[in-house]
Amino acid sequence: MNLLSVQDLQTHFIFRDIDHQLREAKALNKVNLTLNSGQVLGIVGETGAGKSLTAQSICGLLRPPAKIVGGSVTFQGRELLTLSEDEINTIRGAEIAMVVQNPRSSLDPLTQIGAQLVRLHQTHTGGPLAGSRKKALDMMQAVGIPDPEGRFTAWPHELSGGMAQRVLIAMALINEPKLLIADEPTTGLDVTVQAQILDLLNELVARFDMGCMIITHDLGIVAHYCDQVAVMFAGEIVEQGPTREVFLTPAHPYTQQLLAATPERLQLGVKSQLGGQPPDLFNLPTGCLSQDRCTLATEKCGAPPPLIEISKGHLARCHFVKPAEKGRSKSNE
Amino acid sequence: MNFSHFIFRRTLMVIPLLVGVVFLTFMLVRVGGLDPVGLLAGPTATAEEFKMIREELGLDQPLWKQFVIYAQNVIRGDLGESWLSNRPVLDDIMARSLISLELLFWGIGIGTLIGVPMGLRAAFRPNGRFDQTTRILSLLGFSIPTYWLGLVMLFVFFYLLRWAPPGMGRISLMISPPDFITGSYLIDSLLTADWRAAHSALAHLILPVICLAIVSAAPIIKQTRAIALEVIASDSVRYARACGLQTRTVRSIVFKNSATPIITFVGTEITGLVGTMSLIEYVFAWGGLGQYGLNAIVRGDFTAVQGYVLTLALFSVLVFLVVDIIIAIIEPRVDLS
Asked: Is there a domain that residue B224 lies in?
């Protein structure tokens, strides 16, 4: 059984515009994902592809006008989308924990960080206060906060961005979750701090045997830290597979373009083919969503592309993708 | 760095404000077109008498000298004499301030106690039924003219229903007011166990207090709702939800983080309401500072007007001083140095 399995998840923004016309932006279209314990999955894609929205949909954090209109999310075999707010509250922060971007503004500015850790531990795990306090100090130690006793009574505004992100990681891990979702955990941090934070995350994921989902637009981070990668485009996962395989033999034309557009490859003289805009979410094309940007597109792309398993665990949603012959994918590794 | 030091320095900052206030008050009345000499001398005065009064009032001196004299007098606590009451303006104001404060205290107190929870509740379910009802109510509260509200309430609750006493002061004419302790008839009569007076004082308080509460609650509801909505959309509240904190806990985080801007807004509301209150006092013949000031303006009693404006400005300065101190207590991000 997969730790997390997302099937055909669809999230739309449904609202009335200024003329009272009902409008529907199809932000997530058939998101399919699987994640196992001990795995790190990177979700990449350009801005607006629906990376963060996927995370929020999984955790039930959507606010109107965003609404899940179809699909299913099963976590440890349990369907999450039909849970009530109170039920999902017992899972969020306990079994599924999030690390968000903007750590400094995400902490409660009027509560000392030790008290925030204790409050979170009390909410989900309970037990005597002294136990929560001990656990909080242990976690602060584990995420590399110097002088945990002294920082226990620090206010969020007194922390640097990197230190605040360590606090968020401590908060995420204090209830020993099974799944950690890190939504752009290093955006807005210095490059050196970025590496520290990601190394720390990686180490802790291995130590606590969690599943981890890292949302990023940085392909370097994915190459470095993720076992699996999922590429998103216009609210769809167009390709998922082992990072090495996807990066070396990208199957979907969009993935190929995305990889070719990294600054490193551009420096080598490879010309970027990634032009144009993502499709209009109010008015999606029928069939393949990337047909307007794709150099391969033909008439058959007007039909919905099939999800094809190229090799074990490597899937792509495209008409032109063919399953690899036996043994070929091995020789690529 | 420490707290008493902060309060001390914040209080010192009041001084330049007060100097500015004294200057503005002085200039405001000078350019306001009031001619005290004409008013004092009356229509039959001769040119000789005019000149005499001018000299007696010091109005023949250059403007800067007049200001220096005025400022010196203010520092000594001498605000001049009202020619309507023939008493020192300071005495008049002292006596009437307490009367107005009682009304203001209950009015803004009840307005806040109603407005803040309603605004929060509306923000927790935006566009829900409660939110829509509140929106209409606060729109009404905004648009109804204060004095008209007072008159309608008197018409309905005194004239038609006979539930309330007439709008003629703070206590029934048949009852002797209690001894002066705090200046509030209600509290003083309760303290002296004079139940008949307490009952009458309370009855007289209710209508004007409701008026003031409605007028103050309307903007407080709207502002609280807007502030809370912004806090709900903030990173920290979204993160609190992502942590699976209970709805109750998330709401208390929203409330705490809304407190600072709400308190600031209520502070500005209080200073604004002091002006609005003149009309309510007038309708209910409350006899407080607002009514005194309004009277002085209408009758051209310029020393009294000066005193009134000065008192309101001083009051505003004090309100903001208190607001700043409260915020410094609840808000760890305030830099006390």
From this structure: yes
Q: Confirm whether B81 is domain-assigned.
A: no
Range 236-255 of B in CB contact (< 8 A) with A:
236, 238-247, 249, 253
DSSP state of B159: I
Q: Report the gap between the CA of B278 and the closest CA in chain A (Å).
A: 39
ipTM comes to: 0.84
| Residue B2 confidence (pLDDT) above 90 | no
The winner for highest mean pLDDT among A308-312, B35-39, B78-82, B252-256 is: B252-256
| Per-residue pLDDT tens digits for A286-310 | 777 777 777 777 777 777 787 888 8
d(CA B180, nearest CA chain A) in Å:
43
Q: Which of A106, A118, A125, A168 to mutate to test the interface with B (most CBs of B within 10 A)?
A: A106
Q: Which residues of A touch B241 (CB under 8 A)?
A: 61, 92
> Is some CB atom of chain B closer than 8 A to the CB atom of A298?
no
Domain that holds residue B217: 95-297
Residue B150 in any domain: the answer is yes
**What's the whole-number average pLDDT of chain B?**
87
State the pLDDT confidence band at A329, using cuts at 50, 70 and 90. Answer: very low
**Residue A45, phi-psi category: left (phi > 0), alpha (psi -120 to 50), beta (remainder):** left
**Whole-angstrom Cα distance, residue A21 to residue B96?**
58
- The pLDDT tens digits of the residues spanning B215-255 come to 999 999 999 999 999 999 999 999 998 988 888 999 999 99
- Between chain A and chain B, how many beta carbons pairs sit less than 8 Å apart? 71
Chain B neighbors of A124, CB-CB under 8 A: 244
Largest alpha-carbon pair distance within chain B? 85
CATH code of the domain in which B265 resides: 1.10.3720.10
Domain count, chain B: 1
Give per-residue burial for B69-108: e unless 16+ CB within 10 Å, then b. ebeeebeeeebbbbebeeebbbebbebbbebbbbbbebbb
Q: Which residues of A touch B234 (CB under 8 A)?
A: 105
* Percent of chain A residues topping a pLDDT of 90: 11
The single residue listed with the structure tokens 């309608």 is B152
Cα torsion through B14, B16, B18, B20, rounded to 10:
-150
Are A102 and B235 within 8 A, CB to CB? yes
Whether B178 shows a pLDDT value over 60: the answer reads yes
Residue B142 lies in a domain: yes
B40 to A86, B34, B53, B69: CA distances (angstroms): 75, 11, 8, 20
CA distance B324 to chain A (A): 17
Window from A58-72, A203-217, B37-51, B93-107 with minimum mean pLDDT: B37-51
Q: How crowded is residue B32: how many other Cβ atoms within 10 Å of its Cβ?
A: 14
pLDDT over 60 (residue A50): yes
Residues of A in contact with B235 (CB under 8 A): 100, 102, 105-106
